[in-house]
Amino acid sequence: MHNKSVAELSRALEQGTVSSVELTRQFLDRIRNEDGKYNSFITVTEDQALADARTADEQRAAGNATPWTGVPFAHKDIFCTNGVRTTCGSKMLANFVPPYDATVTANFRKAGAVCLGKTNMDEFAMGSSNESSHFGPVTNPWGEKRVPGGSSGGSAAAVAARLVPAATATDTGGSIRQPAALCGITGLKPTYGRVSRYGMIAFASSLDQGGTMARTAEDNAMMLNVMAGFDPKDSTSVDREVPDYTATLNEPLKGLKIGLPREYLSDQLSPAMEQQVRDAVKEYEKLGATVKEVSLPHAKLAIAAYYVIAPAEASANLSRFDGVRYGYRCDDPKDLMDLYTRTRAEGFGNEVKRRILVGTYALSAGYFDAYYLKAQKVRRLIQQDFVNAFQEVDVLMSPTSPSPAFIQGEKNTDPVTMYLEDVFTIAINLAGVPAMSVPAGFIDGLPVGLQIIGDYFSEARLLNAAHQFQQVTDWHQREPN
Amino acid sequence: MQWDIVIGLEIHVQLATRTKIFSGSSTAYGAEPNTQANAVDLAMPGTLPVPNEQAFRYAVMFGLAVNAEIERRSVFERKNYFYPDLPKGYQTTQLARPIVGPGYVDIELGNGESKRVRIHHAHLEEDAGKSLHEAIHDSMGHGMTGVDLNRAGTPLIEVVTEPDMNNAEEAVAFAKKLHGIVTSLGICDGDMSQGSMRFDVNISLKPRGSDTLGTRTETKNLNSFRFMEQAIAHEVERQMDILEDGGTITQETRLYNGDRDESRSMRTKEEANDYRYFPCPDLLPVVLDDAFIEEARNSLPELPDTRKARFMDQYGLNDYDAGLLAGDSKLAALFEETVLHGKDAKLSANWILGEFSARLNADEKSVAQAPVDGKQLGNLVARIADNTISSAGAKKVFEALWAGDNGDVDAIIDAKGLKQVSDTGELEKMVDEVLSGMPDQVAQYQNEEDPKKRKKMLGGFMGPLMKASKGQGNPKLFNEILARKLDG
User: Which residues contact A410 (CB under 8 A, 6 or more apart)?
Assistant: First the structure.
């Protein structure tokens, strides 16, 4: 059963060939037996999961089922869960138990899904290797000592290792797509505003977006059906109709116009990676798509702009962790300043501190115009690049990451090298458009991802394109040994 | 040297919305600490602000009332600093694009002239909580600081004026005018004792006639007109002493202690925070369309200036009385209620601005807290006007009403035996009796040529007459009878 997709599990539950309690037990057993190797979970909520599974079975018996009723899954530990600790991968929140649900959490609860626990992540979602977690690094199921990517490394590894069929994730600069690529699974970052951010612990508010991780595009569609929608508690969420994302998965791709951004397929890309992308695009041509080269002229400025805007927002977003009301507090503060400085010095890890410092600097008097305002101008140019590109083509395709999973410790001594992991993903967050990563082959036995980028609110088309690709390829079905 | 005083004000006006500016918590004053703070107010992780439309409506109404431009696309920003009563570590406020742009207010001065004070802008923001330094101790008895977040997130507009005022009188006149405007609009309860309006005063001095402004100081958080007046006098004197001794003024923020008439430096410019303002990414720009602004314009109630003109026209009040009564919406409402029951507008105005206001001041009460209402005052005025009671008797009735003994004016008059005797025959008898007992004074009066002195001497008979009538004789009639009998 652990190799089945969400859609298959949903059908099995519907047909009564398995109960939610049985499924939940099986997956909990797998987590208990296997996760020692991966460290993909921070918290496993065994009792709660079994109780929810029993409720789900009763609901199915009573005929009150949704497609998700009784299906096990996991939440990235960035989504607040009422009564279950939510750490955001940080010592700062190691004992924080929220008295409320994130809207995403509440939506899955309403749908009857069974949450097995909270997955590991880079601290406050800041990282591309899941090495900045206070709860230890996550190991990629595809290779011993390989990183799973980040920041949603726990969710990606758990799905790849078949510990859960699906997991929620978030993406601020690539945190869904890059780990999905490195772990050989399918992930979707929706349009900014499509999924409520309420109760999703903020890293950079104008870039953060909750999204989906599963092995198939169809499962991603099923997740998005639960997650998407306007939320009156999040004034940046968009009041726009939510389609049934599973309804259009089988639309033919004939006539789909694919754009290949020149800047993303430059000579700096490894020939092996470029070959993977071109092979994937060939599959699309066989399905009736046409391909042309397009330009995103400001793409090269994306990392620089991002590493001003994201840290600037983070520096303010993380001010609330001050030891006054909740979370970590240093021992015996001698006065207020001591309480603040030691709580934050002891409670935050290095990467988080680095970004708070960078962000604070960028917003400081005398630097604001040169950094923050300039970065915002660049951001608008990048947005315009995408708007222009989507007048010519329906989707853009590129590699998701420059290389497959790297060795733990290889990049975390040099922040800039680590930041370059997101060179193909970051501009998408700055523009706010949706994008997916779809398994598209292997290099040296390690999975690589194809990034498919769409126009605003074109998630249905992205999922359709990914699903059709998965009907003619089996990269997403490969299992790490 | 002669000095010009330059004053600008920043006024925090607490908006009378039912709930907070970015959360659904109640804004009611005086609840148990932290009972009106939800997850958003506590800045729990992942929580987000949701703007309260009523706060925007109130801000727009204010803008229209002070003849200001309304910003169609205003932006909230984060003002970053750490303090225990600031849960998010930043205040959500407006800086570059405030909702209310430049406007003005005309104030009336004691000499009868009026003056225009320009408003630079007014912006929306959230209030912080309160730190409680007193009366909190741990189990070992060590003093601790408590934090009450009930007030955190209460909507404010901060009104910033141009430095257009030149003395304390003008500043206080402006403050009172603004108080009248916001209470008339119903966007603020105006209760300064509860912090509903708080004033920061920027003061600088420059040599008389100079075009260059001097270095200014800011005196913060003055919560009464009296303290504001005192604080300005205090700060002007302090700066003048320094300048006349050849010193220089330090740009700083000062705190004024009204009970001691002292001030101290809170922080200098060098110690000031770099607040690192930037647009709040959790809130979209506030876009106001014409319909919203027109709806606010149509909902504007009568404002003090219009009301003053009406009071002069409708009730025949003089400029000064009309200005005082119309300037405060509660006082204006009380006046109209009083006239409704008492008919005599001038007498109603005299009583409200006289006895009633004096008692408010003495008891440090607001109009809303007064134990006497307009109906009672009106009934009292009616009984004075129809000669049932004398003004001395009326004061006794008023005292009784104020003390809350008995709410009914006529019942008090009866119970206290204050009905005056207006039966001419009876009064004439008393006058005859008194005059016959005072032959010397009568002769003296009749020999006096100077009408002024005669009038004064006439008063000398009133004491014995009032005594003889046990205070109940109608003094006006006594006077008439006396004059008739003595002048022949």
Answer: none
The domain tally of chain B equals 3
- CATH label of the domain that carries residue B464: 1.10.10.410
Catalytic residues of A: 76, 151, 175
Domain identity same for B465 and B371:
no
- Domain span including residue A475: 1-481
Residue B349 is assigned to a structural domain of this protein: yes
Cβ-based neighbours of A205, under 8 Å, separated by 6 or more: A197, A236, A313, A317, B281, B282
CATH of residue A179: 3.90.1300.10
pLDDT (mean) for B123-146: 84
The reported pTM is 0.90
| Mean of the per-residue pLDDT values of chain A | 97
Alpha-carbon span A323 to A430, nearest angstrom? 32
* B35 lies in the same domain as B15: yes
Distance, in Å, from the CA atom of A344 to the CA atom of B190, rounded to the nearest integer, reads 41
**Residue A372: closest CA among chain B residues belongs to which residue?**
B278
Domain boundary among B399, B416, B433: B416
Reported as a pLDDT band with limits 50, 70 and 90, residue B135 is low
Kindly list the residues from chain B whose CB atom is less than 8 angstroms away from the CB atom of residue A86. Answer: 45
Q: Per residue in A458-471, pLDDT tens?
A: 999 999 999 999 99
Using the Cβ of B282 and the Cβ atoms of chain A, whether some distance falls under 8 Å is answered with yes
Q: CB pairs below 8 Å between A and B: how many?
A: 103
Residues B358 and B291 in one domain: no
Report the DSSP pairing between strands B90-93 and B77-80.
antiparallel
Mutating which of A313, A373, A374 best tests the B interface, going by the most B Cβ atoms within 10 A? A313
The verdict on a CB contact (< 8 Å) between B48 and A324 is no
CA neighbor of B8 nearest in space, from B161, B222, B120: B161
Whether B397 and B451 share a structural domain: no
Does any domain span residue B332?
yes
Percent of chain A whose predicted confidence (pLDDT) is above 90? 96
Query: What does the pLDDT average to over A327-353?
Result: 97
| Residue B307 domain-assigned (yes or no) | no
Q: Which residues in chain A have Cβ-Cβ distances shorter than 8 Å to B41?
A: none
Answer yes or no: do B45 and A319 touch at CB < 8 A.
no
Q: Are residues B278 and B381 in the same domain?
A: no
Cis preceding-peptide flag for B390 (omega within 30 of 0):
no
Whether residues B62 and B118 fall in one domain: yes
Residues B228 and B323 occupy one common structural domain: no
SS3 B112: coil
Q: Cβ of A204 and B281 within 8 Å?
A: yes
Determine the average pLDDT of the residues in B229-233.
96
Q: Are B244 and B385 in a shared domain?
A: no
Average pLDDT over residues A167-193: 98
What residues of A are in contact with residue B47 (Cβ under 8 Å)?
100, 198-199
Cβ of A440 under 8 Å from any chain B Cβ? no
Q: Is residue B361 part of a domain?
A: yes
The model's pLDDT over B406-424, given as tens digits with 9 standing for 90+, comes to 678 888 888 887 788 777 7
Distance from B27 to chain A by nearest Cα, in Å? Answer: 19
In angstroms, the separation between the Cα of residue B96 and the nearest Cα of chain A is 13
Q: Which residues of B touch A205 (CB under 8 A)?
A: 281-282
Domain count, chain A: 1
Give the strand order in the sheet containing A209-214: A41-44, A114-119, A72-76, A166-171, A209-214, A186-189, A435-443, A446-454, A395-399, A257-261, A290-294
State the helix-helix crossing angle for B391-403 and B409-416, rounded to 10 degrees.
Answer: 110
Among chain A residues, the shortest Cα distance to B145 is held by: A336
Interchain pair B48, A233: CB under 8 A: yes
Give yes or no for B456 touching A (CB within 8 A).
Answer: no
Binary contact (B283, A198; C-beta < 8 A): no
Residues of A in contact with B284 (CB under 8 A): 235-236
Range of the domain at B445: 424-487
